[in-house]
């Protein structure tokens, strides 16, 4: 039995028990605790009557007896039970393993006495068993677990059958059924078997009041934990030890959607927000409520949840809300314990060693009151907030395997084993992270990924109205933010929403004619002044001290920004000459800028951070500007871009700006784009005047320096830049109050000369910026509005606009491979909103189809409608086209291939794509595609195996009788759900019409529209159609039979059919036929009669 218990036994005080008294102790279990001998006073009594133990609860059990180092043998006989023993009659797991004796002086007799009463075991539970008694070469002792005080009772012990602790888990938090890692699954199964054995023995041998030990402490502990977490998380921390803002008063639901796993996004987070603001909300993007974060999106159990979001987007507040709602009893009550362990606090323990049990007890000492192994049998959620802040070494490949909760190791090893499922494989884990750091956890260990996108437009207004109680003032703030597109976009970030409301509320209240902030730099400069002034009013401290601290904080901000750090520790502050005591004081009185994290309740170390990354970037830019003005001409040398940018001696402010612009352009991910905007904006005269309040020593620079910087940016805009880079340069021009390029483009638009004007590269960039920041919805991008000639260049230059649009119309534009490559880039972009692409009338050629196919097969491509009519797509091009659709089949709903010479071989590739179970194509247009009767065989097979297709157009193809007969084989299949079928001008004659109608009679419930125009079906063919039309199960609403050689006889048959089944047909078209006066009158009479639904009749 020793090998079953891998963890070392804990040393507990034990009382000796003589071997000769062993059988006496085991048989005399009725000793009252007040009468017991001191040596055995805590021995558990046995009830003389049957014990009624909960049949659902796993928590009504005691650990087994453990006897070690015995000097004599166990008596051979086993005393008869005075009452029935209830064991399972179905489970093999209801049997105890044999007793194990090691190094003993005598043998256990083989004989076993027969119980004088029947043995009745549980007929439902496999969980009614304990591990066996353990006898080893030790002196016989009684463990502490059976020395608990027990009161004697003569009545049955009835445990509650309604306790929340004895119920199965609800669906929302089902135990994960398995994990991708087979080793962790094996560990989980082994632990489960051990736990089940322990549970059953406790139920059999438990004393009457054992439930007091197992159930009541759990309830009490849970309530204590909830109370503690509620006190901690009901307030939004503002960095002060006193209470901040009540979370329930200000909380606004965030826009959370399913995220993408296995990808790294290293772009600057403001760039990500600006890109996300241009993406239309898709119908597939179903918002996820914070409390439903563990709800499976695809039917699979969720064990490890990763939530991504840029800094300040609301990850920590979402965690806080999730915990608070649980603690207040309003959500997720199927969870028994929530254990938040933020990374910023775990960082302080990176050099220490803990077992998981000790780590949890360190953070939650109230859980020490009960065995941690008992806690782990309940529904637990671990929350690790701030993966991007961790300074641990998470090694998922080579870290030591730890599978027991009492084995000590480093904190990073504990985390990797928890995430992989080696430790507590049934626990739920929630990790939050900024996008760039999310890849540190391999995607195979992540069950589901979600993404917090911040506030959508209605949520912005809701938050601002909650934060500004004066309704009129709130309206003014919202109105002002909407006037500045760049500010309103930034309000996607909740922290920026708060900064904006703080500044604008104060400034609009004062209403002294002061200019209201319109740029980011102005907004953040006012915020810095407001917070520092509040500090001075409270504490009346010297301005000089503020100035020194702001510069030191700026140095910290700049150095840590270059390292990518948002969280700082004492050593980081000391590196910048900041006394930790001063930092604590400053964080306590000016918390809206820089704060000490007081949420770290259980750690002795101090953690500091700026309220948001953008505040850090603003202070960093301020530090560089001030340091340069004081004579440090090499301050930017610390910023090393990915490539060698052009260097300047930086003798003037213009040189400094040029160097910063070039370094930003060399950066791949734009990680310092916002820093550049602030650096340039600070040089504006208006911002210089504002900063003089805080920094009297700040030197003013000439306006000529600013103008020189503007001209340099315009030169750079003529380069062939990545779209996101030139968009950021236009933001920089806005910070410098230059709008000349934008105004020029707007003049072109107003005069309607844009399409006829040959634009320069900088003008193309200005056009893109104007369109993206206009605030107008970009539903349709029509290439012909912007150019008449150079379509390829237009697509390349306007790629961000194409991606921000739902529909791209690029018809009859003489596209070449360069233009198609630009469209492919748009389709492959994860930030693309494209749902519809119209390319009709462009000769794609084989290379063009191949390039387009690369975009179509991208997992980021969400195209729903694709128009490739009249694109000269040949049969050999179909291989790459439909191969791409096979790789990404789940989005495309409508495909138009009209007037392309596909031929029979092309249809084979198409049929293969249609038969894929993932195919969701609903409309397929193959008008005039040079199909023959033989082409109908693969199409029929597709109809037999495709239930999504509802519209099929095969008009103007030479199908004839044999083709119609083959197609009928597919139409009669129950899997075929065609609603609209067009076979105009296909050479269908009378006999072919009979085959089609027979097929429709076999599967009649779906077809609502049938077009057989220009087929010589004659009156006999119409008679077959009329027979089908007369059936009550026929649901046909539109019937087109123009130019089908129909006469009066055919009209009579149709009229008769409609009289028999008048309730469905709404439109009937018979133009180009010799109907005669009688035929016309019969049909017209039906249209005029009130009992018929015939609304449209063309004769």
From TrEMBL:
InterPro entries: Leu-rich_rpt, LRR_dom_sf, NACHT-assoc, NACHT_NTPase, NLR, NLRP_HD2, NOD1/2_WH, P-loop_NTPase
Record keyword Nucleotide-binding present: yes
Matching Gene3D superfamilies: P-loop containing nucleotide triphosphate hydrolases, Ribonuclease Inhibitor
UniProt KW keywords: ATP-binding, Cytoplasm, Leucine-rich repeat, Nucleotide-binding, Repeat
Region (Disordered): 1-157, 171-190
GO terms for cellular component: cytoplasm
Annotated Polar residues bias: 21-33, 43-54, 88-108, 124-146
Pfam families found in the cross-reference section: FISNA, LRR_6, NACHT, NLRC4_HD2, WHD_NOD2
Source species, domain of life: Eukaryota
The name this protein goes by in its record: NACHT domain-containing protein
Species annotation: Ameiurus melas
